[in-house]
Design goal:
The complex is a heterodimer of chains A (about 625) and B (about 250).
Chain A lengths: L6 E5 L3 H12 L3 E6 L15 E2 L11 H11 L6 H20 L14 E3 L6 E4 L5 H18 L3 E5 L1 E8 L5 E8 L5 E5 L2 E4 L20 H8 L4 E2 L4 E8 L6 E2 L3 H4 L3 E5 L1 E7 L5 E4 L5 E2 L1 H5 L9 H16 L7 E4 L5 H6 L1 H11 L8 E10 L2 E2 L24 E3 L17 H21 L10 H20 L6 H15 L6 H18 L13 H25 L17 H4 L1 E6 L6 E6 L35
Parallel strand pairs in A: 1-2, 1-10, 2-6, 10-21
Antiparallel strand pairs in A: 3-5, 4-5, 7-8, 8-9, 11-20, 11-22, 12-13, 12-19, 14-17, 14-18, 15-16, 18-19, 22-23
Helix pairs in contact in A: 1-4, 1-11, 2-3, 3-11, 5-15, 13-14, 13-15, 14-15
Chain B lengths: L2 E10 L2 E10 L6 H9 L28 E4 L2 E4 L5 H4 L6 E5 L6 E3 L2 E2 L2 H9 L20 H11 L6 H5 L12 H12 L7 H5 L16 H5 L6 H20 L7
Parallel strand pairs in B: 1-5
Antiparallel strand pairs in B: 1-2, 3-4, 3-5, 6-7
The chains are: A alpha+beta (about 625), B alpha+beta (about 250).
Chain lengths: ~625, ~250
């Protein structure tokens, strides 16, 4: 029996957390929404280009099945297929829902939703709001949650950071320990289920396209408490960003979707291997060389992100980068004023930070860490599985502890297609909100029956750790250690990896872990102490960095975003499996789960050199799928 | 190497003071990257090791609204404040200070939660029967979408409120951002059906008549939202609503 109020905690105020909170409240739960920053400032705001759904509004005979095919293929067959299929089937319903909520999507002349093209597909299926789609979707859900808040169904705990999961004597989630950032007071929040929608770990790489609070520490802390982490090694590098001293700012894929072209000055004295193995000259000297269009005539500038990022790097390594630096041109200067207007917010970002107008001169861009396909392992019983009603979708290996959004591993396999992340966040959140009431109904007792020591012990552990951190008096500065972690992760665990460097990285992280014992927090103030906050986060960040590096070391193949020159091919025989990392004090223990490939044989090789539309043969579609929208 | 001074008005409520830091000019640096540089080795200009500075940040792309502060006295987002644009041969100093119209938390951080509370007063959402209904929303012309999108880019950063002479830490004025949100939702065909719920709270104290038409808000808005247009439009609608309420007429469609 759950608590009479069906109290559920949601940690994270981005798209996934808000979608979960909304659906939970609609399902009669009382939601305690905990977030590090005000929900409207969550990292979802940074998603620019759009959200995918096969609405088929351009008469292209698009369908959710083709969307699922593109997603599975784009992820190099590493994604479990049943959740991908249901996500794509739910896509049109999710767009309609957001449209009813008033999300200001771009329109066609007739007032219907407009769509644009994105990478990794030949169809126009990306719905958008200018070039700040994530911001608009986030605001729209935040508004709906605020409406529910005024009805007393949701209460917000903003500026509160999750530190520790509280498990009862049977190991079920019953609450969390949080720290109020303004005064560093620790507090217990209780509930009968806890949802984590805490985003990605971009900051493990120092500078990335992520917001400054995307440390991955919430998942890292859960991992240290026994939550399994899956496919950590799959980190997406976005091909087009503006490198900066504080972060790498995203230049949306929609820029290429709307006709932007990637190029460098050609040099016919240099040669490069094309995807088919042919060695060909790098364009003509003195003329623009549109290398993606030449190498991949089928998809051109809209190849999958992993492919795009690697080609940009390869071209720069040949010395063809603009001005000899690690940068290439992304050009929209030839496009119409109307298209410039559609891309306004992203072109403005470039103008603001580089002081040049991209409408007139080509932008200079380079790849950067962007997204984690990996994340918390969560369950997904398929609709027609015999034990469907006994298991819970989006639930981690810790009973009552759910996970969704970028922080779960489930929807993107080895590489995420552009504009699929917003969809997976909302879908994962809604799904979580559907599953939890059934989980609550099956509980024998509520948290109110838990012995108080369960909560007291948890908060005491955190009080002790807080005291320990404040007492450390070494010479190390945690922000400096973070910079060093970022440097080694960027160098060895991004676009190109090899086993010697990965091994060295693991040792380096362990050394950082040792040095972390000798930090001192320069700030002993108990108000809004960012140094303390980050020092606490950094412990979990180091553990998660080990998960990523070791996962990469153990995977001797190349698949999607994971590329090792020593093992350049996808190896389905040995590695068509999900990496599972479980916590160990020394280093993560790695094991593997089979990938659920019941709908589509992994026979299709990704080939972006030819543009061939095909009707995929999706098998074994359950006839009892019940979508959340 | 070229150097400059960051002069930061910092401290806790009742204990604020200026502290100066000297930094090297580095190409592409903005105020946030400069603050990040300081925290790796927080030593002030006098050579004293001091407490790391506290500020709010998030996306660093001017879409999240976190990093609002006063830079040389003007409210704006710190992430887009490029250091080089502020430095002149004669003046190598940039002053940072927290907003003054919200409760101070510490250093450059203030508590802007009243902005979110004001969104409740403004009924800033579309009323629906929830996420399980079916079908698309109403058709909207591209021209109308254009206006709505512009209004919807408001990131509740608080610059407009900080610049407004009518707003203060203690004044009940709801502020330009929330009024503009009322306009956004009244413009939506579904939202319009509930327009009275947005207009009535703006009739009394803290509402539309508290605006003194100084027009500072529109000057400082980082998103160039036509806030004064919003205030004028809502002003008219509030008057019409008051008349309708006076004569007990049913709400206009």
């Amino acid at each position: 029996m759950p608590s009479p109020n069906k109290e559920v905690i949601v940690v994270g105020g981005g798209l996934a957390g808000l979608a979960a909170a909304m659906r939970l409240a609609e399902n009669g739960c009382y939601v305690k929404l905990v977030s590090l920053s005000p929900a409207r400032r969550s990292h979802s705001v940074c998603a620019q280009g759009g959200i995918n759904a096969a609405l088929n509004v351009k008469g292209e005979d698009d369908s959710p099945y083709i969307h699922a095919f593109d997603t599975i293929k784009g992820g190099d067959f590493l994604a479990d297929q049943p959740p991908v299929l249901e996500m794509c089937l739910a896509g049109p319903g999710i767009i309609k829902m957001m449209d009813r909520f008033g999300c200001p999507f771009n329109r066609t002349e007739s007032g219907h939703l407009d769509v644009r093209r994105f990478g990794g597909t030949l169809y126009h299926r990306t719905v958008f709001c200018g070039a700040s789609t994530g911001q608009q979707l986030l605001y729209t859900l935040d508004e709906q949650v605020r409406r529910l808040e005024t009805k007393g169904k949701v209460v917000r705990y903003e500026n509160h950071e999750f530190l520790r999961l509280i498990k009862d004597e049977d190991g079920c989630a019953r609450g969390i320990v949080v720290c109020h950032f303004f005064n560093l007071k620790l507090e217990v929040i209780k509930g009968d289920a806890v949802v984590f929608a805490t985003g990605g770990p971009g900051l493990l790489f120092g500078k990335s396209t992520n917001s400054t609070f995307c440390t991955g520490s919430a998942n890292g802390r859960l991992y240290m408490q026994g939550m399994n982490y899956a496919n950590g090694e799959f980190i997406q590098i976005h091909p087009t960003t503006i490198p900066g001293n504080d972060k790498c700012r995203l230049i949306s894929e929609s820029v290429r979707g709307e006709g932007g072209r990637v190029w460098v000055w050609g040099d016919s004295s240099k040669n490069i291997a094309f995807p088919n193995g042919e060695i060909r000259p790098c364009g003509h000297t003195g003329k623009p060389w549109y290398f993606l269009e030449e190498m991949y005539p089928g998809y051109g500038n809209l190849v999958g992100r992993d492919v795009g990022a690697r080609e940009v790097l390869r071209v720069c390594e040949l010395g063809l980068g603009v001005d000899g630096q690690m940068q290439v041109f992304l050009d929209v200067s030839h496009l119409s004023a109307e298209i410039h207007h559609k891309l306004e917010s992203v072109l403005d970002i470039y103008a603001k930070f580089r002081g040049e107008d991209p409408r007139k001169v080509p932008m200079r861009i380079f790849p950067a860490v962007h997204y984690s396909m990996g994340g918390a392992w969560v369950d997904w019983p398929s609709s027609d599985d015999a034990d469907r009603q006994k298991r819970f979708r989006q639930m981690t290996n810790i009973p009552g502890c759910f996970n969704c959004g970028e922080s779960d591993y489930q929807y993107h396999g080895a590489n995420r297609l552009g504009a699929n992340s917003l969809l997976s966040c909302i879908f994962g959140g809604l799904t979580t909100g559907e599953e939890i009431p059934r989980y609550l109904a099956g509980l024998k007792e509520s948290y109110t029956s838990c012995p108080s020591k369960v909560f007291e012990e948890a908060i005491q552990i955190e009080e002790n750790f807080k005291e320990t951190l404040f007492q450390r008096e070494g010479k190390e500065n945690v922000f400096k250690l973070h910079e060093e972690l970022g440097e080694v992760m960027i160098k060895n665990v991004t676009v190109k990896r090899n086993n010697a460097d990965l091994l060295a990285t693991i040792n380096e992280i362990k050394k950082l872990r040792e040095r972390y014992q000798h930090i001192s927090i320069s700030d002993h103030n108990f108000f809004a102490n960012r140094a303390f906050q980050f020092a606490h986060q950094f412990q979990a960040m180091l553990e998660l960095a080990l998960v990523i590096a070791k996962g990469a070391l153990c995977r001797d193949e190349s698949r999607g975003a994971h590329f090792k020159a020593e093992f350049p091919d996808r190896d389905d025989k040995n590695f068509l499996k999900t990496t599972i990392a479980s916590y160990n004090e020394q280093e993560p223990q790695i094991s593997y789960n089979p990938v659920d490939i019941r709908h589509l044989e992994p026979t299709h090789k990704r080939d972006y050199t030819v543009a061939k539309k095909m009707i995929p043969d999706i098998k074994n579609i359950p006839n009892n799928i019940k979508l959340p929208v | 190497m070229d150097k400059y001074i960051l002069k930061i008005f910092r401290g806790t409520p009742g204990h604020q003071y200026f502290e100066e830091f000297e930094l090297d000019v580095s190409a592409g640096d903005n105020v946030i990257s400069a603050l990040m540089q300081i925290r790796k080795n927080p030593i002030n200009r006098k050579g004293e090791r001091v407490e790391a500075i506290v500020w709010e940040d998030g996306c660093l792309e001017e879409v999240c609204g976190s990093c609002s502060m006063l830079i040389n006295g003007r409210p704006r987002q710190a992430c887009t404040a490029l250091i080089e644009n502020y430095l002149k041969k004669s003046n190598r100093e940039i002053t940072l200070a927290p907003f003054t119209k919200y409760p101070l938390v510490r250093d450059l951080m203030v508590d802007r939660s009243k902005m979110f509370e004001n969104l409740k007063k403004a009924h800033a959402w579309i009323d629906t029967e929830g996420s399980r209904e079916e079908g698309f929303g109403p058709l909207i012309s591209p021209a109308k979408q254009e206006v709505m999108y512009r209004l919807a880019t408001c990131m509740t950063c608080g610059c407009c409120v900080e610049a407004c002479p009518q707003a203060s830490n203690h004044s009940p004025f709801i502020g330009p951002a929330a009024i503009s949100q009322a306009r956004l939702f009244n413009a939506h065909p579904t939202g319009r059906t509930q327009q009275a719920l947005r207009l009535r709270p703006l009739m009394g104290e803290g509402g539309i008549s508290d605006c003194g038409n100084a027009q500072n808000c529109v000057e400082v808005c980082p998103k160039k939202i036509p806030l004064t247009d919003s205030i004028a439009a809502i002003g008219r609608d509030v008057t019409l609503q008051a008349l309708r309420d006076l004569f007990d007429l049913p709400d206009r469609e």
